[in-house]
């Protein structure tokens, strides 16, 4: 088996390819311009497709047919209309073109497997879309790697750092289109992303835009006696203005880069339509003035990331720089000055991700079947040899053990690829073990030979051990993965299956019960909906990533309320989600693998989610009306109106509607629900906190009556109380409150007061309401005595008997119906 060895950084602005070879990284140069990366730009021109530098040059002259920044649209169903070819292309197709172009640089290697990097924030669908682009580009195997991990691998491996204790690094990735900050822990030999934060619309291109708007436009207007230039350019109405806009953008970017080296630059603008011929000077200070607020945004995202993880800049050992925008001296200097943390810029920030991807690829075995069984001659023997060793080592030698299945008597020999080590031919019976010396910071290749008793070669094998290169312990999940469940109120809630930042791959089995009857041969359905997002938010504000409907049509038997359902969930490192549903009472098993690269949306579900959200908003409006908080009310009403429009549109489309409409509606619904969620969150959190505090206060009175087991339970519930209360997540707080209340009820039910309460409750009923009034009277007397004697078991039994005699038992009264269960009368 070979390692993957090839790594690609598929960036928003620039992309590149590198290869790992024996501990060293080769970046494949772009043959045009001989740069390390190519712009992620595709242009269509007279039936010709151009990718990279050439395509970028056409942005201004061929505006409608040149596409860039499509990474921001990965996983959406948006497509780009290309007038030149008379059809649309998707972000996946455009990305595949860039990947294909990159792969063509590795002439003679023809990579079939590749590591492709993705932002840490990419959700399941965006990740799968990236994989799909890789397959469309002709790859047979795509392994995804998160960009901050790649960057750390590049820094740590290249510097050969000796990290002996665990340290925290901050990855500051300020690229062309996006900003990402990641908090990473690094110990002796492993890297792990703890958490990350980012903004998909904060990058170098925003600086270019600001330069055009705030610096170039005013100066051109002044020099050429014009007005409203910026507005005209961005309105897109006038094609020559649009062209000018792209030209200025291009010039602004060049000027921006020059300002990373000089204190001032001069831009020449010479255009015919509109007729312009001006020279503009831009000083570094002017540029820094437009940059400063953007830098501020990146800085506060970092602060927020640290705060959320209870850390301060002092806890950070270094900040590592990634992304072309970090070339700007102001960014480096301000980072260092404000945070007080060492800013490490020892690696080219535009190739760090690329190089790291190749390091990772160099240590990652390919799952593809080898066509050629290595370079070794193959022997047709039946020897079954089991080799045991650690493929990654930080030591100068590593133990390798081999065991032959079945009887074997003969010899073995191990040689290192560079010829620097040879065991010579040694005797063995069935097993051997050997310490192999390793060359530092490289992958050591050894060949093992087995010979039979007559010293005839009967078997060969390859042993591959990489020394001294960092590896990663795994990639974290960027969002919670949750299952939607029915709640007693008729609404649905989310139960978290996998937690944000859990390390992939993951698996979990959970048991649920059926909450409705699904009769065989009926159209009723059991719905399993898996969403990605935040477990603490409303269902509708999350992304659906897996949806299974199990209809009664196929059942041999009825599925009844209360029956058990077993669910197995698995997510691979490359983000394939699989679900296995087992219903033992029906002996029914259903397996599904989801690797959606576009979102799956059920129109029926969409409608009901919009409806639920509208109900909730109406309820909130109704609650709030008396408060006369008009600003809040009008915001709620706006949300409601928006959803009502969406509801009407969703009602007009059929379930199997084939256009993009339902996806668009789903996205708009998600945003509208999120907006509502944000609006009410603060208020609801306060309410939940208040209720929690009430329950907690009540608890103090009952704690002494709790059994040791209940006390344990209480300790367990409040163990992470602080974290929950500070989470700002009303669902989490509500859940905790519910747990406490249940426990409180439990304690109360076994308290003596409880039976006294019940006794007095029944005692004052009219005797005629009981089947045997005289027996009832007798029980009343006995009860009074039992209370006098503090004989509570007796009292319990008396209450039980009184309850049995009662003719019309009250229903729905929480207190008495739980009493019901407690006395074993159910
Ligand atoms: P991405 O990760 O988005 O593909 P890169 O990391 O390659 O992007 O960064 C590209 C951005 O970096 C562009 O906006 C480019 O203008 C900017 N950039 C590149 N070099 C410099 C420089 N020397 N000074 C300032 N900005 C630069
Ligand atoms: Mg990047």
Briefly characterize the structure.
This protein is an alpha+beta fold and 826 residues long. The protein is 38% helix and 26% strand. α12 packs across α13, α13 packs parallel to α16 and α17 runs parallel beside α19 (792-805).
Structural class based on helices, strands and sheet pairing: alpha+beta
- Overall average pLDDT: 86
Distance between the termini: 63 Å
Total number of helices: 20
Q: List the domain count as a whole number.
A: 6
Assembly state of the chains shown: single chain
Which CATH-level-2 architecture of the largest domain?
A: 2-Layer Sandwich
Q: β content, as a range?
A: 25-35%
Please tag this protein with its features.
826 residues; alpha+beta; Nucleotidyltransferase, domain 5; Immunoglobulin-like; binds adenosine-5'-diphosphate; binds magnesium ion
Account of the 3D structure:
- There is one protein chain.
- The longest helix has 42 residues, at 661-702.
- Strands 1, 2, 3, 4, 10 and 11 form a 6-stranded mixed sheet that branches. The chain has a 6-stranded mixed sheet with strand order 18-17-12-13-14-27. Strands 20-26-25-22-23 form a 5-stranded mixed sheet, with no helix packed on it.
- 38% of the residues lie in helices and 26% in strands.
- Residues 812-826 have low confidence and may be disordered.
- The chain has 6 domains: 1-159 and 346-363, 2-Layer Sandwich (Nucleotidyltransferase, domain 5); 162-343, ATPase, nucleotide binding domain (Nucleotidyltransferase, domain 5); 385-467, Immunoglobulins (Immunoglobulin-like), CATH 2.60.40; 480-594, Substrate Binding Domain Of DNAk, Chain A, domain 1, CATH 2.60.34; 603-747, no CATH class; 752-818, no CATH class.
- The chain is built from 20 helices and 35 strands.
- It has 826 residues and is α+β, with helices and mostly antiparallel strands.
- The protein binds adenosine-5'-diphosphate and magnesium ion (MG).
- Magnesium ion (MG) is lined by residues 11, 175, 323, 353.
- Adenosine-5'-diphosphate is lined by residues 11-14, 175-177, 203-205, 253, 256-257, 260, 323-325, 327-328, 350.
């Amino acid at each position: 088996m070979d390692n993957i060895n090839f790594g690609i950084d598929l960036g928003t602005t620039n992309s590149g390819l590198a290869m790992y070879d024996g501990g060293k990284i080769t970046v494949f140069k772009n043959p045009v311009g001989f740069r390390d990366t190519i712009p992620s730009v595709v242009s269509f021109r007279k039936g010709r497709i151009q990718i990279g530098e050439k395509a970028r040059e056409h942005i201004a002259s061929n505006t409608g047919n040149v596409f860039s920044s499509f990474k921001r649209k990965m996983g959406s169903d948006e497509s780009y209309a290309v007038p030149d070819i008379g059809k649309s292309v998707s972000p996946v197709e455009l990305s595949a073109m860039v990947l294909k172009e990159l792969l063509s640089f590795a002439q003679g290697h023809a990579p079939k497997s590749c590591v492709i990097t993705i932002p840490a924030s990419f959700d399941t669908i965006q990740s799968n879309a990236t994989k799909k682009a890789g397959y469309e580009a002709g790859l047979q195997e795509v392994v995804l790697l998160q960009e901050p991990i790649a960057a750390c691998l590049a820094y740590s491996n290249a510097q050969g750092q000796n990290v002996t204790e665990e340290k925290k690094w901050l990855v500051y990735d300020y690229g062309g289109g996006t900003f990402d900050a990641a908090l990473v822990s690094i110990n002796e030999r492993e890297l792990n992303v703890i958490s990350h934060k980012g903004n998909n619309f904060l990058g170098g291109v925003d600086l270019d835009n600001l330069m055009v708007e705030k610096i170039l436009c005013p100066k051109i207007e002044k020099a050429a006696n014009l007005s409203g230039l910026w507005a005209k350019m961005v309105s897109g109405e006038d094609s020559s203005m649009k062209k000018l806009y792209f030209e200025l953008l291009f010039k602004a970017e060049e000027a921006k880069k020059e300002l990373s080296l000089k204190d001032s630059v001069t831009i020449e603008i010479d255009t015919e339509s509109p007729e312009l011929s001006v020279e503009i000077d831009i000083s570094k200070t002017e540029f820094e003035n437009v940059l400063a607020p953007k830098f501020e945004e990146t800085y506060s995202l970092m602060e927020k990331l640290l705060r959320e993880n209870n850390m301060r800049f002092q806890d950070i050992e270094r900040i590592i720089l990634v992304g072309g925008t970090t070339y700007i001296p102001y960014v480096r200097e301000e980072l260092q000055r404000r945070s007080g943390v060492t800013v490490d810029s020892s690696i080219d920030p535009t190739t760090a991700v690329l190089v790291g991807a190749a390091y990772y690829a160099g240590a990652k075995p390919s799952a593809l079947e080898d066509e050629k069984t290595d370079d070794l001659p193959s022997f047709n023997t039946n020897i079954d040899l089991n080799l045991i060793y650690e493929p990654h080592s930080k030591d100068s030698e590593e133990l390798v053990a081999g065991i032959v299945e079945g009887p074997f008597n003969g010899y073995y020999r191990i040689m290192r690829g560079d010829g620097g080590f040879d065991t010579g031919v040694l005797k063995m019976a069935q097993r051997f073990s050997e310490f192999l010396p390793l060359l530092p910071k490289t992958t050591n290749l050894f060949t093992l030979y087995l010979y039979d008793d007559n010293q005839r070669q009967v078997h060969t094998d390859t042993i591959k051990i990489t020394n001294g290169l960092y590896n990663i312990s795994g990639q974290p999940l960027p969002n919670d993965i949750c299952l939607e469940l029915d709640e007693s109120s008729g609404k649905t809630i989310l139960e978290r299956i996998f937690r944000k930042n859990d390390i992939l791959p993951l698996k979990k089995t959970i048991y649920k019960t059926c909450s409705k009857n699904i009769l065989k041969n009926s159209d009723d359905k059991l719905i399993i909906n898996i969403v990605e997002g935040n477990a603490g938010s409303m269902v509708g504000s999350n992304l659906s990533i897996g949806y299974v409907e199990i209809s009664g049509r196929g059942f041999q038997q009825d599925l009844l309320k209360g029956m058990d359902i077993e669910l197995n969930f698995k997510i691979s490192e490359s983000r394939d989600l699989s679900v296995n549903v087992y219903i033992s009472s029906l002996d029914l098993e259903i397996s599904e693998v989801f690797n959606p690269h576009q979102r799956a949306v059920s129109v029926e579900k969409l409608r009901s989610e919009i409806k639920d959200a509208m109900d909730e908003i109406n309820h909130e409006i109704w609650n709030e009306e008396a408060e006369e908080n008009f600003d809040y009310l009008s915001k709620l009403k706006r949300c409601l109106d928006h959803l009502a429009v969406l509801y009407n549109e969703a009602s007009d489309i059929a379930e199997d509607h084939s256009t993009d409409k339902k996806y668009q509606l789903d996205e708009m619904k998600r945003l509208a629900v999120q907006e509502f969620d944000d609006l009410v969150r603060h208020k609801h959190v306060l309410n939940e906190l208040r209720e929690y505090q009430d329950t907690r206060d009540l608890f103090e009175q009952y704690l002494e009556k709790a059994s040791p087991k209940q006390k344990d339970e209480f300790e367990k519930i409040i163990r992470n109380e602080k974290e929950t209360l500070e989470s700002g997540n009303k669902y989490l707080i509500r859940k905790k409150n519910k747990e406490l209340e249940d426990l409180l009820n439990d304690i109360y039910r076994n308290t003596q007061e409880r039976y006294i309460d019940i006794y007095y409750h029944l005692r004052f009923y009219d005797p005629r309401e009981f089947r045997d009034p005289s027996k009832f009277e007798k029980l009343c007397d006995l009860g009074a005595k039992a209370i006098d004697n503090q004989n509570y078991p007796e009292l319990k039994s008396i209450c039980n008997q009184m309850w049995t005699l009662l003719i019309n038992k009250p229903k729905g009264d929480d207190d008495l119906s739980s009493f019901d269960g407690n006395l074993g009368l159910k």
